[in-house]
Specification:
single chain; Rossmann fold; five-stranded parallel β-sheet; 14 helices; 5 strands; 52% helix
């Protein structure tokens, strides 16, 4: 595979290539009203779960602002990373081979955004997208804070953020907040079905991934063809439990074919589901089970313990807690 194709920012389903935004109608209308009334805030914090379309929406907002004279051409330039008035602040590739994205957004790149905003635009506006603000290092966050506090005229900053609790309080206080929710399961199916995937998924596989994605097309992509997701789907569909059934489900994570990624996905799905059940039922036993499972998964991964046994223990803990509930 060519090295350039290993860059996740060049995947055919990257948000900048999306032809339209699915869902989030309220956020789109709110932004459009502010722009039409000439009351557009200089910085917008776009929060919500990962993969629900925040970055896609940010790119569409950028196209709306920059493409007032020629929207179609603006979208083509944005897709090609060639628009002179758009700066995307994101993690960059490291210099090792195989090349991978760095863990954080560097302070040098954050300063590059500030320098970009100091220049004169070619069409009246300059737009910066931070994808994602969660990846800012301490230094880069402080460098960006000055820009948020003292914005140049006709500059728009769009900050995509999965976990706003990690951001500087002063930065959050100076941004207009757009809180985005997951889209419907049917919409997730529609989004993923239209992506130019090398191997389009079977319908039942796609519907399973959408059902488990919590309204996130990005999450659904992770779940496609995942044995961990299939195992969790089997868990949800099981109505009669005994030691043999539990052992069979745990056995999916034993042997050479089972991967750490599958185990992690199963663990994430199970923990999210147990957490939702605990909140809905307000039952202490479920909350206790959640804490024990999270700790067991952490130890299993950290010390490369028996993943099969960890799944068996997790299912037993949940089933016992549900009986008590």
């Amino acid at each position: 595979m060519a090295e350039v194709s290993e860059d996740p920012r060049e995947a055919a389903w990257h948000p900048r290539f999306a032809p339209l935004v699915v869902g989030h109608e309220g956020a789109q209308a709110h932004f459009a009203r502010a722009f039409a009334a000439d009351k557009l805030h200089h910085a917008w914090l776009m929060t919500g779960a990962k993969g629900i379309g925040k970055a896609t929406l940010a790119y569409k907002f950028a196209a709306q602002i920059l493409g007032q004279k020629n929207f179609a051409q603006t979208e083509r330039w944005i897709a090609a990373r060639a628009h002179p008035d758009l700066f995307v602040l994101e993690r960059q590739l490291n210099d090792s081979k195989p090349r991978k994205l760095k863990a954080e957004i560097s302070v040098e790149n954050a300063r590059g955004l500030s320098e970009f905003f100091s220049h004169t635009s070619s069409g009246g506006w300059r737009v910066g997208i931070v994808d994602a603000a969660d990846d800012l290092s301490g230094e880069s966050a402080n460098a960006l804070l000055k820009l948020v506090e003292e914005p140049p005229a006709n500059c728009l900053l769009l900050l995509v953020c999965h976990n706003p609790g990690r951001l500087l309080r002063t930065m959050k206080s100076r941004c207009s907040r757009l809180v985005l929710k997951g889209i419907s399961t049917a919409q997730v199916v529609d989004v993923v079905a239209t992506l130019p995937l090398e191997k389009p998924p079977e319908r039942d596989e796609l519907e399973m991934a959408a059902r488990l994605s919590a309204g996130s097309p990005g999450r659904a992509l992770q779940l496609l063809s995942s044995d961990g997701a299939k195992a969790f789907d089997a868990y949800l569909k099981t109505t009669k439990w005994n030691s043999s059934v539990i052992a069979a489900l745990g056995g999916k994570f034993g042997g050479r074919a089972a991967t750490v990624d599958d185990f992690n996905l199963f663990g994430d799905l199970l923990l999210n589901w147990v957490g939702d059940q605990a909140a809905a039922k307000t039952h202490a036993k479920l909350a206790e089970a959640h804490a024990k499972i999270a700790e067991n998964i952490r130890l299993t991964i950290a010390f490369n313990l028996d993943r099969r046994q960890a799944v068996i223990a997790a299912i037993s803990l949940v089933n016992d807690a549900l009986k008590a509930a």
